[in-house]
């Protein structure tokens, strides 16, 4: 049986697992403006959403939303902005333009306390540093020379989605490539 298992069953099982992994697709990673010890901080999260497929596309279930909206910000909005909080836990997709997020009172190095989110396929962020979760807050600017279009999706019940912390600081390109 050992010879049969090593020559037949193990290769078949290996092929089956490789096929399953390729069908599942990449993990859904997202930059989060989170809160830790009552202070805002940037984190890279992975969401446990297992991709499905629909019409040939990978689809990720992100949960339910309430009062979603589109925002269009004029060029160079909020230069030298004040510190603020997320009004509720919400996903934001930058459809175009640029989002610059800073955690001004952070003890972390600049590369972990600042994020540049470009509009387009990597323009996803979740804001979860509400006043109830973070004292100091964050600063957001939209420094593009063109309008920044945002689609915002407040999470139903104002509860952060289940997630795993990949690392402190915003997601880097290597965390996002493949989505």
Task: Present the secondary structure layout.
Elements: H1 2-24, E1 28-36, E2 39-47, E3 52-54, E4 57-59, E5 69-73, E6 90-94, E7 98-102, H2 110-113, E8 114-118, E9 124-127, E10 139-141, E11 148-154, E12 164-168, H3 173-176
Quick overview:
The protein has three helices and twelve strands, in the order αβββββββαβββββα. The chain has 179 residues and is an alpha+beta fold.
Explain the overall architecture.
This is Small secreted protein. Keywords: Signal. Residues 1-25 form the signal peptide. There is one protein chain. The chain has helices spanning 2-24, 110-113, 173-176, and strands spanning 28-36, 39-47, 52-54, 57-59, 69-73, 90-94, 98-102, 114-118, 124-127, 139-141, 148-154, 164-168. It is α+β, with helices and mostly antiparallel strands and 179 residues long. It has one domain: Jelly Rolls (Sandwich). The chain has a 7-stranded mixed beta sheet with strand order 5-11-6-9-1-2-12, with no helix packed on it. The protein starts with a helix and ends with a helix.
């Amino acid at each position: 049986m050992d010879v049969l298992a090593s020559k037949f069953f193990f290769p078949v099982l290996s092929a089956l697992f490789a096929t399953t992994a390729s069908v599942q697709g990449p993990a859904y990673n997202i930059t989060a403006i989170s809160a830790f010890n009552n202070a805002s901080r940037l984190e890279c999260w992975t969401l446990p959403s297992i991709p499905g497929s629909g019409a040939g596309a990978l689809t990720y279930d992100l949960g339910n939303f309430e009062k979603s909206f589109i925002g269009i910000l004029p060029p160079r909005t909020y230069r030298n902005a004040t510190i603020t909080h997320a009004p509720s836990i919400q996903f934001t997709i930058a459809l175009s333009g640029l989002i610059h997020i800073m955690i001004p009172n952070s003890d972390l190095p600049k590369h972990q306390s600042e994020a540049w989110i470009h509009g387009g396929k990597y323009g996803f962020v979740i804001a979860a540093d509400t006043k109830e979760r973070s004292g100091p807050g964050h600063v957001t600017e939209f420094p593009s020379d063109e309008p920044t279009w945002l689609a915002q999706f407040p999470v139903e019940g104002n509860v952060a989605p289940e997630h795993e912390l990949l690392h402190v600081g915003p997601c880097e390109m290597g965390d996002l490539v493949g989505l």
